[in-house]
Write a structure and sequence with these properties.
The protein is α/β, with parallel strands linked by helices. It binds adenosine monophosphate and magnesium ion.
């Protein structure tokens, strides 16, 4: 059953310049996995254990850096991925940066200012829960800046991410692709269930009403900023178990490909006697 994962990288990675990338991936497509939901969850649990070990190595080595960008409509599961896929990683070396509507101080700077200060240092994994992409998504849809301003940002984002990559950061970007129907169900659940109600934000309904505009903005953003060095993955996210499986797979494969070996000690352990 291990083989199905081999195709994930290629299958869900967005190809540069193709605006049709979202249409090509159905939010409820789980055909790439040959087993049941329980099987998938078992695989994700194994991948999570491996992620823990790989992250420990990354931290111990203190050299490589990994940036994980999570984007998606409200309820698409950004928080769920952080909880589930990253469960058990060592909080010393993993940080989450959440980006909300900018403060007055943030607005007084260029749009990358607040983002750049949060990128991973050597040995760290940083997860962006929303990101600089909001500046070509919500900002575009709600016309918060003139078109000439947000249009320039695709190139600015590519340049920024190239700088990160050339400085030794691995960049992975995941779009959690949910359907409008699935969002309706998740919003209804948030309203109906007392424990979930805190997550309901009436303003999410405004974004929902502009669904098509957001999809168009996502399609553009992904097509214009997916690169070999900093690729986007379009993750079918209507099924949480499939979403988690795809993301855990891509993460583990990416870390494995770094061939991280434990750091060499700067001393001779045999020569040290502890009294
Ligand atoms: P949440 O992810 O539920 O905490 O909501 C955060 C909100 O902040 C979302 O509605 C985002 O669209 C909004 N947001 C994030 N970044 C920006 C930005 N650069 N400009 C305007 N709104 C933003
Ligand atoms: Mg919200």
């Amino acid at each position: 059953m291990a083989d199905f994962r081999a195709g994930f990288h290629r299958r869900f990675r967005a190809r540069p310049g193709r605006r049709s990338e979202l249409a090509a991936h159905a939010p409820d497509d789980v055909a790439a996995f040959p087993g049941s939901k329980d099987d998938a969850e078992a695989v994700t649990t194994r991948l999570n254990r491996e992620l823990e070990a790989l992250q420990e190595l990354l931290w111990a080595r203190g050299r490589e850096r990994l940036l994980v960008v999570l984007q998606g409509m409200d309820t698409s599961g950004k928080d769920g991925v952080i909880r589930r896929v990253f469960e058990g990683v060592n909080p010393l070396g993993v940080k989450v940066a959440s980006f909300k509507a900018p403060t007055a101080e943030e607005l007084a700077h260029d749009f990358l200012w607040r983002v750049h200060r949060c990128v991973p240092a050597a040995g760290e994994i940083v997860i962006f829960n929303r990101s600089h992409y909001e500046d070509v998504l919500v900002v575009r849809v709600r016309k918060l800046v003139p078109e000439a301003v947000w249009r320039r940002r695709y190139e600015q984002i590519r340049d920024f991410e190239r700088l990160l990559v050339e400085s030794g950061t691995t960049v992975l970007k995941f779009f959690l692709h949910i359907s409008r129907d699935e969002q309706k169900q998740r919003l209804e659940a948030r309203l109906a269930e007392r424990d979930k109600r805190w997550k309901f934000d009436p303003r999410d309904l405004e974004a929902r009403a502009q669904w098509a505009d957001y999809q168009a903005a996502y399609a553009d953003a992904i097509a214009r900023t997916t690169t070999v060095q900093a690729p986007w993955y379009v993750v079918p996210a209507d099924r949480k178990w499939f979403r988690d499986l795809v993301i855990a797979s891509v993460l583990v494969d990416t870390l494995r490909a770094m061939k991280l070996s434990p750091p060499k000690p700067s001393f001779d352990p045999a020569a040290i006697k502890i009294r």
